[in-house]
Amino acid sequence: RSLPPVSLTGIRAFCSMIQTNLFRNLKVLLFPVVLGTQSIVSWDPVRVPSLLEISEGQSVCPYKVRVYVYEFDESLPFNELTIKARLRPRGTHFDGEHLLAQFTLEHVLTDFFTQSCIRTKDAERAHYFFVPFFSDIEYRAMGRPNDPSAHGEAILNIIEKNDTKLWVQRFGVTDKYWQKAPERHILVQAAPVTGFRHPKGRRGWHHYKIQLTAPIFISLEVTKSWILQYPRCASKNIVMPYPIPGRAWHDHEAPDAWNVLAKQLIQSLYEKKIINNFERPLFALYRGGRHGCVNVRQAIAKSLAADSEIATITRSIDHAWSALGHRGPTARQVLMHTATFCPCPEGDSPSAKRQYDALLAGCIPVIISDDAVYSYDHFASPHRAYGYALNVSDFAILVSEQDAIQGKLLSILRGVSPSQLASLRHHGRRVSNLFRYYHPGSYPIDPLVKQRYPNGGAPSLLTWDLDRRLQVDQTNPRWEKCQHEITNEPHSDLTKQFCGAPPKQQELSRLRAQLQRRGGSKELHRTIQDWEDGHVFRFRRRG
């Protein structure tokens, strides 16, 4: 059979068919991530003001907070690399949906702070100081060394040794404000398993520990166990969504374009006999590599593939997409817009970009990572302090890693009722733009490449957060509370990754036996307490 001609009427009929036949014709397609065919809706503020087009130079700025952005010479290596990559984006951080694009938070926030109305060029008036250092692009261009770059070393010397000499020498700017208020500086951690140092194979909390220093760290990830271990320190830092670059995600015509592309791909797969019936909607969509929690990922694939009504697509789908001559959106992202559920296991760390991709594509994320948090969820204590936090279960399905390993995933998804599905989609649409860096509009070229002003919900909520810190921190400084937490409370450490249910009774027996034999430190008592309180989402050993 052939598809009807592509038209707006046909697209709407296609979307309607997917919705009405969702429970009558269930089909699961194995491929990375999933999403429904819901259109991208205009931003719902959810009690948070929107920045939209309010940028630097506007006569009215709705915020009192002011941020000074350090100005570094363009000849510095990380600036030269950025300029070069923007001119020739292919294969770089600026290449739309390239793998490296998810690590562009430093660039997105630099574009935001330099163009926002909250920027001040008078450092004496500033409440915060933003450091536009592009660590990730420099790290990868240098061959991914373990040691920090020259400029990374200068920053580490400040926050670890209170030594600003290299900052002045290498960045060529004053150290006056570092000396005066290191806790009011903003640094960005662009990737979850690297920082200013890049030791290979280190997991657990290793890459988070730099956040126990004075500056405010904006990062893509921390975990539930980390927040429970250092709640006061976690509250001084900010977790933001993974950037989702690429023109198609932001252009106002994207919803129709996605559906056209999806129909092309589905027809190709049907003709190649990779799927049996392109008219049936995709019930779920998943494909993942063998990394991170391999046992969990294998269990997801096995659970979905075991059903006789499920089509398993592996690399065949990539070849089919390539044969159509498409560049830009990947086949995975296109098919997100034709599915209902998106299984999202952890990657090299507990969170993953796909948990945000899914929401923007209209899919229902299925979070299969016990230690993962969303930005702005109820574990994000800065937002909780202001009476604002997202309830992840409103827009995502949470499946424990142990349930996935035991093969329960498919039965859980099939057990979602039509009313539950409608509620999940409603809340997903309501919050999705809080995870956008660019408000839907007209984007002939990727907005990150053109340094367009990031006016989406994510930077709006960031500004809202910084603005409210002014009032809270005047009477209750977060950095002082963090210092007290570090020095006056015992802490356990997480140095390994464990996938599945933590061995609670086994570890408690071992730790209690150790306590009886040799007595125990405060740290050992804290570790036992963490296990007893259910604060362990990963295998934990004392450092």
UniProtKB/TrEMBL annotation:
Record's protein name: Exostosin GT47 domain-containing protein
Family affiliation: Belongs to the glycosyltransferase 47 family.
InterPro entries found in the cross-reference section: Exostosin, Exostosin_GT47
Transmembrane segments: none
Domain of life of the organism encoding this protein: Eukaryota
GO molecular function (one): glycosyltransferase activity
Source organism phylogeny: Eukaryota, Sar, Stramenopiles, Ochrophyta, Pelagophyceae
Domain (Exostosin GT47) ranges: 64-406
